[in-house]
Amino acid sequence: MNRIVFLVFVFLSTNSISQEAQVNEIGFFTGTGYYIGDLNKNHFSQQDICLGAIFKTDFRNERMSLRFQLMYNKLKADDIESNVLEQIYRNLSFESEVIEFGPVLEIDFFPFHPGQNHTDEPDFGSPYFLVGINYMRMNPKTKYGDSLYALQPLRTEGQTKPYALNQIVIPFGLGVKMNITHHLSFCIEYAMRKTFTDFLDDVSGLYADPSNWEDPTRIALSDKSKSYLLEQQPGLERSNVGFQRGNSSTKDWYAVSGITLTYEFFKDVVCPKW
């Protein structure tokens, strides 16, 4: 169902471009991102790098733009960085490279035309709202010893089958755009991403019973609190089987903020309407 919604959105967006487009831009994005979920509940905490490439088409009404973006987001979180004692004892962590692709609609608050700051009536800048439907691929991993392990194949919460790494996300947020030269535009942007998975961090439900598991790495990474407690108090052991490992009632989120620089390379040509 998610794929069908995504494809319909792309089709409608592309059809609108063929009828209304007059200015095309290409550009790049650079900034930082962070994740919100079971391992991190604080905004703007534990951030990492985000990069992207953008192709944008501006509509004739000068209030709307449609862009296609390819984003590389690196997300991470560690219970040790939390100020919550229960999280510190849980001792879980993850990092994930997230590839995101899809259309995003920009709606300007004021009329804006890229590269027009040298005209008699310049459209210098405007705040804007953005919303889209994107495809996202995640791959949560964690460090154990000197190695980095992919968590999805391990099924650390005793899943009967691994969760999906391919997901649909909905980016939405605010930004400000302005013209720098006759061809260059500059944007500052902040946008949240709503996901439909609770396994961006590989943490969702209850501690599983590892008594029938054979893989020692799977056993160790399903409950890292034991290793932490043993380091703090040698000889202490306890079983967490059946206790809460994460909160399955909420989905994971992530946010991206940064700057975009776009270049207008094809100007004031309107495609015919069919």
Please provide a written account of the structure:
The structure is a single chain. This protein is mainly β and 274 residues long. It has one domain (2-266): Beta Barrel (Porin). 15% of the residues lie in helices and 43% in strands. The chain has helices at residues 2-20, 85-90, 216-222, 225-232, and strands at residues 21-36, 48-59, 64-78, 93-108, 125-132, 134-137, 141-144, 147-150, 166-179, 184-195, 253-266. Strands 1, 2, 3, 4, 5, 6, 9, 10 and 11 form a nine-stranded antiparallel β-sheet that branches. The protein has a two-stranded antiparallel sheet with strand order 7-8. The longest helix has 19 residues, at 2-20. Mean pLDDT is 87; it is low at 4-21 and 268-274.
Task: Quickly describe the structure.
The chain has 274 residues and is mainly β. The protein has four helices and eleven strands.
